[in-house]
């Protein structure tokens, strides 16, 4: 059976015999979306030919296939994960404004990608709070669950805030490349060109419950996005052996597929977010979104963030 893995291209005549259920159960997408992706990658030019079939493929051939598919996706869809501009930016901002957060550009959070103990690396660096080896992925999403930015690679022991400061996202924000929309005036004379909605982790006064509830409702997009992404590509739900050099590119490639499937309007099966535990009881799967063991105190938050937080809470309280 001829197979061009680099272009994610198998002879499509083989797929003609597959049922709709096959694509739904195995690939979590419709046949026409799969064919669109395959044809786009084929047109990208890079190919890898192998005589192996997709069933019973050896480990070495499997690693080559993953590498080549990842490379093809990153090449063919290099702009599929991008910071929104113009009309798309206006749509994103309008959606957040309707939720009570004017000039908000997205929601941000981290998720753990569980791995087996990495070779040739200090294992303790990758040991997280749940005593599992992991790498963290920082992701920004909009309210449609589309990935706008992704940054992967820091060990599971690294704090979310430190990852933000080390990420390319922070550098681009500091350079004035991200929050370029006209400023919005908030109560107390606060002016903001834009911000990302994160988990506050700050103890709040009862009078700010309205703000807290709205923040949790808007930020639910992050958990739903991680649920959809990891639920469809379940490799990232479990500890698995991986190549630490290529893992970031593989996760970005999955985020690209995630956006393609959303753009195609393919629904998500919520049953993928449930599993039967060792005790036989049905439970939600662990998405690797570990909250801090204790809330941050006010003094540990930046002054600008607290000022913005107070202004948004005041604005909501007067509406």
Automatic annotation (TrEMBL):
Location within or outside the cell: Nucleus
Pfam families per record: DDE_Tnp_4 (PF13359)
Main localization category: nucleus
Residue stretches making up the DDE Tnp4 domain: 108-259
Example of a GO MF term: metal ion binding
Cofactors that this protein relies on: a divalent metal cation
UniProt entry tagged with the keyword Nuclease: yes
Keyword set, alphabetical order: Hydrolase, Metal-binding, Nuclease, Nucleus
Family statement drawn from the similarity comment of this UniProt entry: Belongs to the HARBI1 family.
Record protein name field: DDE Tnp4 domain-containing protein
Lineage summary: Eukaryota, Viridiplantae, Streptophyta, Charophyceae, Charales
């Amino acid at each position: 059976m001829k197979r061009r893995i680099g272009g994610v291209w198998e002879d499509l005549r083989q797929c003609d015999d597959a049922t709709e259920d096959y694509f739904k159960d195995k690939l979590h997408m419709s046949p026409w979306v799969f064919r669109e992706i395959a044809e786009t990658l084929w047109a990208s030019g890079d190919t890898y030919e192998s005589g192996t079939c997709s069933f019973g493929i050896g480990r070495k051939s499997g690693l080559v296939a993953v590498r080549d598919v990842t490379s093809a996706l990153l090449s063919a869809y290099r702009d599929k994960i991008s910071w929104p501009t113009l009309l798309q930016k206006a749509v994103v901002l309008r959606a957040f404004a309707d939720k009570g957060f004017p000039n908000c550009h997205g929601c941000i959070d981290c998720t753990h990608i569980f791995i087996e103990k990495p070779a040739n690396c200090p294992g303790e660096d990758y040991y997280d709070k749940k005593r599992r080896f992991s790498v963290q992925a920082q992701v920004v999403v909009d309210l449609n669950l589309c990935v706008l930015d992704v940054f992967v690679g820091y060990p599971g022991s690294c704090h979310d805030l430190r990852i933000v400061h080390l990420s390319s996202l922070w550098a681009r924000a500091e350079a004035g490349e991200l929050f370029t929309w006209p400023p919005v005036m908030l109560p107390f004379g606060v002016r903001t060109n834009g911000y990302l909605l994160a988990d506050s982790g700050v103890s709040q006064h009862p009078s700010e419950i309205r703000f807290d509830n709205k923040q949790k409702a808007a930020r639910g997009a992050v958990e739903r996005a991680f649920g959809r992404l990891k639920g469809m590509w379940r490799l990232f739900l479990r500890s698995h052996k991986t190549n630490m050099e290529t893992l970031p590119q593989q996760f970005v490639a999955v985020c690209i597929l995630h956006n393609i499937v959303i753009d195609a309007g393919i629904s998500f099966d919520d049953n993928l977010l449930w599993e039967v535990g060792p005790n036989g009881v049905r439970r939600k799967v662990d998405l690797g979104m570990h909250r801090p063991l204790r809330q941050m105190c006010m003094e540990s938050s930046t002054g600008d963030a607290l000022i913005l937080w107070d202004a948004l809470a005041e604005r909501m309280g007067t509406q």
